[in-house]
Automatic annotation (TrEMBL):
It comes from the Bacteria. Residues 6-63 form the HTH lysR-type domain. Pfam families: HTH_1, LysR_substrate. The keyword DNA-binding applies. The keyword Plastid does not apply. InterPro entries: HTH-type_LysR_regulators, LysR_HTH_N, LysR_subst-bd, WH-like_DNA-bd_sf, WH_DNA-bd_sf. GO terms for cellular component: cytosol. Keywords: DNA-binding, Transcription, Transcription regulation. GO terms for molecular function: DNA binding; DNA-binding transcription factor activity. This is HTH lysR-type domain-containing protein. Belongs to the LysR transcriptional regulatory family.
Amino acid sequence: MGGLRVTLNQLELLVSIADRGSVSATADFFAITQPTVSHQIQQLEQELGTELLRRKSRGMDLTEAGQIVVDAARSIIKQTKAIPGLVQDLKGLVQGSVTLGLSPVSPVSTHHFPTIYQMFRNQYPEVSVSVMEEGSAELVEHLHDGRVDLAIMSLPVLGSRVDITPLWQEELVLIDAANARSDDQPKSLAFFHDRPWILFRAGFGLTRTVSALCQTAGFDPKPAAEASSLSAVIGFVISGLGVSIVPREAALEHQHAGRVKILPITPRMSRIMALVTSSDAMLTPAGRSLAEVIWNYSRQQEHPEVPASASRRSQLFRH
């Protein structure tokens, strides 16, 4: 009985059709003809003995079997592409590329990543670094489909099959328009239960954190507006539309510029930021090196300590 004859090229074409939605878009991406793509997929289906794609009015849909194959193929493709890096690692070299996932509602990309990147670039000049900004739910999905190698996200992380390394505690503050009437006396969050709130849309870790903080204070915030970025949320607050909870690092520059004011809240609010990867895929040498730099950076910062119960180094650094 002969072995299974499935090629990496066939798997890459199938994954591309799943991502791009059609044979024509895949043919354009790989600069080959549509009949070539169709022939390769037909051979893959014959080899596996099942239909993988189903035509619809526009493009293609995966069958149940097709989805299983695509999920497995993403991991196979990622690990195959990591082979040159593993060989270079054996020679003491770190090359290739790595993609870091960040949230657009976190100040990590503007307040931390520039220094992290400079540290990494100084140590590993042959590695190309890309950044993808998405909500936490999307980032977990991209960790599993291979579009992101590792991500900095807030806890808790919703999703299975992930490795987590807590990094630092990020202070959160309540902000209001600079011209809003208030005093300097610390107040509980419940004091602001009847104020209109500017919230982040669903899918972000900060959305869940703010909701949990308000519910702990005994109320559900009344949304005046929702947004998908820190700049938009702070812009709504500047306009006087409502109050919001944001990372302190993001609020300070706007307070210094006289655009918002930080209102003293008791008890103080915070969340834990963590480094996250997929448990299903081994990091490349470039990915492990970036994880190590991020960990070292986090140890150098004057952030509040991560609680002992959360402080641990995961298997991100395994070789």
